[in-house]
Amino acid sequence: MCPKLDPVPVPPGAAAASGPPEAVARRIVHLDMDAFFASCELSKYPELRGRPMVVGGRRAAHQPRLREDGTREFSLLRDYVGRGVLTTATYEARTFGVHSGMPTMKAARLAPHAVLLPVDFDLYRSYSRRFKDAVRTVAPVVEEIGIDELYADVTALEAGAQEIAVRLKAAVREATGLTCSVGIAPNKLLAKLCSDLEKPDGITILAMADLPTRIWPLPAARINGIGPKASARLAELGVATIGELAARDQVWLVERFGRSYGRWLHRVSHGVDERPVVTYSEPVSMSRETTFERNLHAVRDRAELGEVFTRLCEQVAADLQRKGYVARTIGIKLRFDDFRTVTRDLTLPEPIADAKALRRAAGSCLKRVDLARTIRLLGVRASALERADGAVSEPERQLAIDFEPGPEPSRQD
Ligand code: TTP
Ligand code: MG
Ligand code: MG
Fold first, then answer.
1. Which residue has the least CA distance to atom 23 on ligand 1?
2. Which atom belonging to ligand 1 lies closest to the Cα atom of 101?
3. pTM
4. 341: β partners
5. Domain locations along the chain
6. Is 394 among the residues known to form the active site?
7. For residue 6, what is the DSSP state?
8. Where residue 408 falls among pLDDT bands split at 50, 70, 90?
């Protein structure tokens, strides 16, 4: 059967009669913080500015030590032993070839003298809130898509794109002291691609007409949704760049990638993306977990374990209350010394957000686990969330988190 062809994409602003009605040409911002975790750390340790630095150490081993003269002593990458990976690196460190996701020991061979800091998620979460609030003062229609990035629809703002970008960057800088990079384009796909083009501290404004010069030379794998498998298959077929993808016929793509993905590939290579900026985002769950510095035993380390367990419950309860949710299902997660992970949960007749009730529910989950082995990690999760004010929420959506958490404990979905 011959696949049905999509209409050839029409650039916004072209005659409406020649394609689907394009209501108003949109202006979409993608804003992404520069070397985010590392930049947050620099605000704590300004003496490291200009030095190569990476984030990915362990709190116990790599926390900076205060010397008697008041200066700090930092761990260096060359001293690292372990199996962790980097969460990020400053731009100075990137000149040595180190990057997010690289095994820390490999990075140590490339940049042995770079400073190594442990991850501090609480700090990054607080900067994340601050920069997002600052953006909303300039551009209220915001979709959060990760800890350090967001989309905003600025179609309705009076100012020109350059002016909006400058204002956004100034607001973020004033609220956080940090720099970000901004892309403004007719849709989310192009905004996300172009915010990366002038990093760090960049502004990129892109019109449909710039597609051939600015977007088509980029590797196809830059597009969100073209993962390692698809890009390997494309490479086998001689397609490395977005432009080479755009040059292929839609039928050719559909034959090789299936109807839905093939058509999508065709559309994105031509810069077409109609997804709206979605301002609501309902979390599916909230959780906190911690990895112990030494493995704990349920009986021998009962007091310590109990204390941590209670603290995790209090943190989850505080997260729920701060964000205005109640939870119907409470769960726990345990990882044992042999790395086996078990979870248990309990669904309650009434939703809760109170630390004591949460601790009781989590405690009864714990009773259902065989605790013979020592424990490396303990986590508490609240799910089946409902708005505490009883408001009807949009269909449940995972709060978009665009990466796996780094090696440190304590994160929140
Ligand atoms: P990114 O925005 O991808 O990277 P970045 O902000 O460090 O650098 P850039 O200037 O290129 O935007 O990710 C944001 C944060 O997410 C990053 O600072 C650390 C974390 N992260 C990880 O923990 N692991 C990963 O593999 C990646 C890519 C990011
Ligand atoms: Mg970033
Ligand atoms: Mg990012």
1. 87
2. 26
3. 0.71
4. 335
5. 28-34+123-210, 41-119, 218-269, 285-387
6. no
7. P
8. very low
